[in-house]
Write a structure and sequence with these properties.
The protein has 105 residues and is mainly alpha-helical. The chain has four helices and two strands; from the N terminus they run H-H-H-E-E-H. It has one domain.
Length: 105
């Protein structure tokens, strides 16, 4: 069954699809809020907590540089967390919806 043959209005009205969409949306909003707050901690910290950001960690590397580099680590962690959740939960729910559509066709 190709995607052209799907009744998209029926899929959208399907309670299982609505549950999948709601769970995925809530999860993504949580990740987005966390990442946005973490991202803005860098300029806020650099502006209002300059003494904290000047603390030397190792040689010329200070807390500000370490925090800035942690932005990359957090981005990769967020991507990893999403992929684990998608593979474990969202993909299984989507597959169930697809199998129900194929069985009903």
């Amino acid at each position: 069954m190709s995607s052209k043959n799907f009744n998209w209005a029926a899929i959208d009205a399907n309670p299982k699809f609505q549950t999948l969409h709601r769970k995925k949306t809530m999860f993504l909003w949580g990740l987005m809020i966390f990442s946005t707050i973490f991202y803005f901690l860098l300029p806020i910290g650099a502006a209002y907590y300059q003494d904290l950001f000047k603390i030397k960690v190792w040689g010329v590397v200070n807390f500000g540089i370490m925090f800035a580099l942690s932005e990359f680590v957090v981005a990769w962690v967020i991507a990893f967390v999403y992929s684990k959740k998608a593979n474990a939960e969202f993909d299984a729910m989507a597959l169930e919806i697809i199998n129900n559509l194929k069985a009903g066709a």
